[in-house]
Amino acid sequence: SSCNLFLITRAGYKITVIDKSEKDWWKGKCLGGRAGYFPSAYVMRVESGQRTLQVTRNLQLADQTLLRDQIVIQVGEEVDGVAMVRCAADVRSADHTGKEGDVIYKEILCPLKYLQEV
């Protein structure tokens, strides 16, 4: 399989991580076999059984804004059309404590009718 210098993907694309020895740039492989480097700050870990979903419209939830086309991970069971999802935290929110460049994740309840499977 060929190795490109950088791995160009789209939101929601699944990558298998091969090497995390560099903090900011990880090496990974796409489903089609292409391999290359990608910025570690732009990926979320997806465990077996979790669903990758895309937001279908801008949403204002309790203390978090979700933007159209944003990727979230369903981490909890659906109850009455709502499920717990993991998303990148809104950096303007009061609970953002990481240094610049860090991605902070949070889990929030979200109506599934505004999400679609990727």
Automatic annotation (TrEMBL):
**Which InterPro entries does UniProt cross-reference here?**
SH3-like_dom_sf (IPR036028), SH3_20 (IPR059031), SH3_domain (IPR001452), STAC1/2/3 (IPR039688)
One GO biological process term: skeletal muscle contraction
- Localisation: Cell membrane; Cytoplasm
| Residue stretches making up the SH3 domain | 1-48
Q: Which PROSITE patterns match?
A: SH3
Cellular component terms, GO, for this chain's entry?
cytoplasm; plasma membrane
SUPFAM superfamilies on file: SH3-domain
Highest taxon in the source lineage: Eukaryota
Report whether Repeat shows up as a keyword of the record: yes
Give one GO molecular function term: zinc ion binding
Q: Does the keyword Repeat apply?
A: yes
Record-linked Gene3D superfamilies: SH3 Domains
Which UniProt keywords are present, listed alphabetically? Cell membrane, Cytoplasm, Membrane, Metal-binding, Repeat, SH3 domain, Zinc, Zinc-finger
What is the name of this protein?
SH3 and cysteine-rich domain-containing protein 3-like
